[in-house]
Amino acid sequence: MFFFPGLHVRGRVRLDEATLRRVAELSRLLLSADEEKGIGRDLAEILEKVRQLRAAPSSHEARFWPETRAFQDLREDALRPSLGREALLASAPRRVDDLVEVPFPGEAT
After folding, report:
1. Distance from C-alpha of 19 to C-alpha of 22, rounded to nearest angstrom
2. How many CB atoms within 10 Å of residue 20?
3. 100 or 103, higher pLDDT
4. CB neighbour class for 22 (10 Å; exposed up to 12, middle 13-18, buried from 19)
5. What's the pLDDT band for 12 if we cut at 50, 70, 90?
6. What's the pLDDT tens digit per position in 16-66?
7. 1, pLDDT greater than 80
8. How far is the C-alpha of 64 from the C-alpha of 42, rounded, in Å?
9. 33-55 vs 17-26: helix crossing angle, rounded to 10
10. Could you give the angle at the alpha carbon of 60 between the alpha carbons of 54 and 61, nearest 5°?
11. What is the mean pLDDT of residues 77-88?
12. pLDDT over 70 for what percent of the chain?
């Protein structure tokens, strides 16, 4: 179970502005005021559907993986060589010492 102080469940799900901004910050999203309103409505709708699904009676277990051939032919997990440190750092857009620097969304690269 998750908990956000600004998530109110009485009838319908609503998000307060502080909670929406915190979710955007954790997601590293830079949102305009109009985008906040739209995403706030969308997120509230998604959370409302989740609330409805949790409340719905269920007579059987949900399956996490469909039983299809696509999932039967997966390869075994195995270690294999990857790029060397210098090759990886050479292709990085920004490098700080021996690290790749990842810019904040919206920041110039």
Report:
1. 5
2. 20
3. 100
4. middle
5. low
6. 888 888 888 898 888 888 888 888 888 888 888 888 887 777 766 555 555
7. no
8. 25
9. 90
10. 70
11. 86
12. 71
Q: How far is CA 88 from CA 37, 96, 107, in A?
A: 40, 13, 22
Q: Please identify which residue in the block is written with the tokens 């910050």.
A: 25
Q: What is the pTM of this model?
A: 0.43
Written as six digits, the tokens of 21 are: 């901004």
- What is the sign of the dihedral through the CA atoms of 43, 46, 47 and 48? positive
| Alpha helix ranges (H) inside 1-109 | 17-26, 33-55, 69-72, 85-90
* List of domains in the chain: 7-55 (1.10.20)
What's the gap between Cα 38 and its chain centre?
Answer: 17
